[in-house]
Amino acid sequence: MGELVQYLNKIKIPQRGDKIYKDECVFSFDTPESPNGLYLNLTTYLGLGQDHVDAYYQRTNNPVFLRLKRSKKEIPAEQQGDGPEKKITRLAIGVVGGFTPDTKKYEYDESYEIVILPNYVTIPYPKDDLPEQVKTAIKSLLEAESASKLAETEALAGTWDGEARIVSKHAANLKQLGNGKKIPPSGWKCENCDLTTNLWLNLTDGSILCGRKFYDGTGGNDHAIEHYRTTGHPLAVKLGTITKEGKGDVFSYDEDDMVEDPHLITHLAHWGINITHMEKTDKSMVELELDLNQKFDEWVALQEAASKLTAIYGPGYTGLVNLGNSCYLNSVMQMVFTIPDFIKRYVEGAPQLFQQSGNDPANDFNTQMAKLGVGLVSGKYSVQPPSGSEDERRQGIPPRMFKTLVGRSHPDFSTNHQQDAQEFFLRLIDLLDRNSRHQANPADCFKFKVEERYQCGGSGKVKYTHRPEYLLPLPIPLKAAVNQEEVAAFEAKKKEVEAKGQKMDSNSIVRPRIKLSSCLEMFTQPEIVEQFYSTALNQKTNACKVTSLASFPDYLVIHLKKFTLREDWIPIKLDVAIEMPDQLDLSMLRGLGLQSGEELLPELAGSEPPPPVFDEAILEQLKDMGFPPEACKRSLFFTENRGLEAATNWLMEHILDSDFADPFVPPGIDMKAGKTDFKPNEEALQMVMSMGFTKEQATKALKATDNNLERAADWIFSHQAELDAPDTEEGPVQDAAFRDGNERYKLVGFISHMGTSTMVGHYVCHLLKDNRWVIFNDEKVALSENPPKELGYLYLYQRIE
After folding, report:
1. Does 327 participate in catalysis according to the annotation?
2. Where are the strands (E) in 256-322, listed by range?
3. Tally of CB atoms within 10 A around 153
4. Count of domains for the chain
5. Structural domain of 590
6. Does the predicted model carry a pTM greater than 0.85?
């Protein structure tokens, strides 16, 4: 006890706002359930696993810890009780309201002891004769909310996770007609067609009509919504979903959403429906959506569910737990940590990164990257269970701190909603760039130079521009399918079957099969650029643009643009099979630069052309609709301010363009050539100044980041010493170094998506390791027997030397 007393000045009583990391080590994935428990420092409240305690003590001289240990024991089935049946309410796996693979129930035992370093002197807790300061500090720590839970709550503040439904504004005073209709308890049929499923009862006039047609062609014939457009009667309940408790799927056409109707029992009674006799006989909208997003053949193929896969353990074979629709993050991080650049920087360099992490390692990007990398590569958390044991089949580490950190302040990645793996990959690239200012950036292995050649239609002269990219987006030419006749026959058969109110057997689906070479050819096709400013003619004209690659990276990420918009602007996913070769020669994409006989367009002579003029009224209307400001400027420029409808149509047609929201530069004008005066974006300037910085400081930050507000905010806090230094005229610093080599590659990984849109469904990663394919399906890692290479979304190719 005397040794503890001498360190009382080191023991702090937590105050409001203190972060207490008692769930997980900040440098590893050790928890109180780990064999050695978790050491919680009583000075800084950092949680540490056994492997990091000594190093932390040597670095900080903070010696007093509370060791937390927790053990779990399965509750025998006969002691669990029946309990209510679990209802699936969310499109996710392993999260509250979603599918729960493990239905076992456990009870937990917790124990504590005080540990004093360097000699690991232990004192039991609780203990009557402990100093009051120690008792108060530990009691407060154990009762306080953990830092990880507080961070998740903060990240999700103001977001909607898909569970709650609003009460309809029409529910309280819904008009119901006295037309004498009585609804029978069964035998329903659409009043406008022969469909007997997916039927909706309009609560105002008692009509029974079929619902919307789904993206895959199933569902109804849209008669219920057509009825609303004719009558304006807003609420309908899906027949077959009504329960004895007075619940059911209610849709408000006016509010365009699923809603709650607190008066549903009364509204149903008006049509002679006694809910005490109702049984749920049809699928709810959530269940139907789950069906759509788990297309049986796609789900089975991508997860290899039809095969009895052999689990694999050890270094490099650690799974990642799905934290509320985080499979997009899991797949991308599994992919990048197979690459030597990332292993060298974040696994081999982990000790140094941990030492440099500062006072809050959980909020240091490089530390959390190292923690994740070591967790995935070391094999510490992927140990084969004893022979014959079923315990912990789905071993995996939960990337909580990493997910919270990379999602912070981001409108999409801070939520628990499903996100796009391609967008997350670019988010990761951006974070790597911000946090690699003084050392090599491992993302340089993906970086390549895109060459764009413009040929002026009036003068024939050319202009070459270059920009860095980290993935190659390829369009999908459906007209190039090699099995068009087979697809046409399938579509005809599908319509015939659906006309009878039936559904096609999922195993008989025929997808358009397209060769990767067709996608590459479409990528290199010439494109006409309108309103190109020709410096040879000093006026706008048309130009021909050809895109190619001026360098080839060590690892090439190919993004198949499967997500697109239908003619009615509804986002859809192209259900296609792309023949992806194991070896790839991309010589056809090599840009050659200025050729003999070509004449360059002259630089701007004298003053610049007049800046584009935007109709401010239309611009504000477009921004109010939610479009990015720079995209709105693009639309007005290319539609020549012809009106709101023309600009909106342009935006919807180009919403998937890679530069959609980038700072707008009129085509043909080099904003950097011969330019000495940087003009900051006014909105971004005001935002940075609102943080307490001067106009000059804010301008410098925006200049260094090409008017990118998010990057500017990061730049300004990491370049405090440069804020008041004299400015230069060099503009943003650009890294001109691009790795380059031959154009031959081999396939080493791919990420697949199951579902109808990026916002729902599931991601799975396949990687080629030790000359064998391995499937990473969240926490499950197994040898792959039939890798579905033709159904992927992102592909990783490695250069063949």
Report:
1. yes
2. 257-259
3. 10
4. 5
5. 448-572+586-654
6. no
